[in-house]
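Q: Sequence in, structure out?
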Amino acid sequence: MLAGMHRRGYIAPSATLHHTALCLGDHIFIGERVLIYQADADSGPVDLGARVRVSREVIIETGAGGRLTIGDDTYVHPRCQFSAYHSAIRIGRGVSIAPHCAFYSYNHGMAPDLPIRRQPLRSRGDIIIEDEVWLGYGVIVLDGVRIGYGAVVGAGSVVVHDVPPGAIVQGVPARVIMFRSDLPNHNGVLMSIKEA
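A: Exactly. Output:
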């Protein structure tokens, strides 16, 4: 409600915003103990669209080569983590992200001749979450993954491969179990995702 009262939105007093390239859309909401920070001077921007809701204790970090974009009307529930290094994390419009989700646009090398702590970071590419996606509780999305328009990812899933538009996926690793077009609409009529 507070975010809707003024164009500049609402940022909780306990939120920590430590980023030189932070862009906030109109009517933004940033909740209690949210942390947005820049790990490296050469990291990319964090761009949060209009009416984005970032709930309490969410962590957003960018490092070298990383950036984060969250589209208009997307809701990020509590205790999610976004770590954008080496590649971007791009979240579309109207996305619903349940609590405890995590997004990592990078990974560590695992060569046997170096300790893990000294392995270089690497990335398979950007994380792209298209518009109107729903991610259930505790979903993890890894580098190089695209989740298509209107897809649903079940709670606890680990997404390591692309998800088609309108798919319902579940598991570790996440696999397609059906498509939303296989389900009846609110009137009991089957319809394609393009008609939704």
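The chain has a mean pLDDT of 92.
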